[in-house]
Design a protein that fits this description.
Length: 426
């Protein structure tokens, strides 16, 4: 018996009256897969591809020290420099071209002797016996009209007494004696003087003798200011140059050529005069800055005699005290950059600029109205992310010879580039 017709139809090739599906297109499937792979590869590449570096924008200010601008009363001729002990040069005037410096040379002579033969408080140092050669030098210098200290053969002078003879009455013969005692000969000592000048950075200074009589011994006011500051850090030197007089075995009572001692707070340091050098004076004076005792140091070179002050050395004294009194009221100590001062920005293309700030305050001493210079340095490339407070560079703040280096840090975090930014910008 035959099965029902409906059952036979169910085993046929048609279902519910709909045609069968079309076979898949292999090329289209491959293309779709490639698109997916390419999209995934693009995302992966953009995720690992380096983002642009973070750039830094310099916005360093150049503030002025507060107060009425200083008006230093510089000498009309020659050259001069003024500074503060422990701070350095504040200002200079004139050509600062090397010129003869006369007995100011003895600043270096004393420096070398005290370096090679240090003297502590109340220490007199070794004794030196005066020889016939020393007496001959004294007589020759005296005959030329040089500044001398009388000596006799066999006389005993200790180191401190010799330095007193060098720095107080400014004995040229004592300079030659100390040079030979220290180095074996004045020529050898002069070699040490020039080597020391180079080491100390006195780039415009050259010595030809230990006393300054030679016109070939030359320097500048700025160099001698720096040397005077170095000398004044030595307690033995300070104790000698502030003496108004001293008593030596043969010479007896000798007086300090520095006639300004005790006036305007002056406590030293060295005078000089020759016809070629004119009147020269390096000075140190105590003053008060921001409620603290400070030492102002100055140098005045190349002063000629004037109608008011015919003697060149007296003219140098007058120029120095005028300069000192004009400058003292204008010396200030101030915080020129408080902590967190913005000195620039870190710039990433995907974020707002981030301030670059100082990590500590910067205080400087200078003349009111002086401009402070700031240079920002980012030593290497900066890559995001950068945490807040992370040090990324430094600033050098300059005023006169002062150089203060202060670290710079990110004021807030610099985020890394987001996925959205990478997909649309890289």
């Amino acid at each position: 018996m035959s099965p029902p017709r409906a059952a036979r139809h169910g085993r046929g090739r048609h279902y519910n009256g709909r045609p069968p599906s079309s076979p898949a297109n292999p090329a289209r499937a491959v293309l779709a897969g490639l698109v997916i792979v390419a999209a995934v590869a693009f995302v992966l590449v953009q995720l690992v591809r380096p983002a642009p570096g973070v750039s830094a924008t310099d916005a360093a200010p150049a503030p002025l020290l507060r107060g009425a601008p200083a008006s230093p009363a510089w000498p009309a001729q020659g050259q001069a420099a003024i500074g503060v002990q422990g701070v350095g040069l504040l200002a200079e005037h004139g050509s600062q071209v090397a010129q003869p410096i006369a007995s100011v040379t003895k600043l270096m002579t004393a420096y070398l002797v005290l370096q090679d033969h240090p003297l502590g408080p109340a220490v007199t140092g070794p004794a030196v016996t005066i020889t016939a050669t020393d007496v001959a030098t004294y007589q020759a210098d005296a005959a030329q009209g040089d500044s001398v200290v009388a000596v006799t053969a066999g006389e005993q002078l200790n180191e401190r007494q010799l330095l007193e003879g060098l720095l107080i009455p400014s004995g040229d013969n004592i300079a030659a004696l100390l040079a030979a005692w220290d180095a074996g000969s004045e020529q050898a000592f002069v070699g040490k003087m020039n080597a020391t000048a180079r080491r100390l950075g006195l780039l415009h200074t050259h010595y030809a003798d230990a006393s300054g009589v030679s016109t070939q011994t030359v320097s500048t006011a700025e160099d001698q200011l720096r040397l005077a500051m170095i000398d004044m850090t030595n307690s033995a030197f300070r104790s000698i140059v502030r003496l108004t007089q001293a008593t030596l075995p043969v010479a007896g009572l000798v007086y300090n050529v520095n006639a300004e001692l005790g006036t305007d707070g002056i406590i030293g340091v060295k005078t000089g005069y020759t016809p070629a050098a004119g009147g020269c004076f390096t000075f140190a004076a105590t003053t008060t800055v921001d409620g603290k005792a400070r030492t102002v140091v100055g140098a005045v070179l190349g002063q000629p005699g004037t109608a008011a002050q015919p003697a060149p050395l007296t003219a140098a004294f007058a120029a120095s005290t005028t300069l000192l009194t004009s400058v003292e009221p204008a010396i200030v100590q101030q915080t020129v950059l408080p902590a967190a001062t913005v000195l620039g920005h870190l710039d990433a293309p995907w974020a707002q600029p981030v301030p670059l700030v100082t990590t500590r305050p910067v205080s400087l001493t200078g003349l009111a109205g002086a401009r402070v210079r700031t240079v920002v340095t980012i030593p290497g490339p900066v890559s995001a992310p950068v945490p807040a407070g992370h040090q990324v560079g430094y600033a050098v703040v300059r005023l006169g010879s002062q150089r203060v280096r202060v670290p710079l840090a990110a004021g807030r975090a610099v985020p890394g580039a987001s996925l959205g930014w990478r997909l649309t910008n890289l």
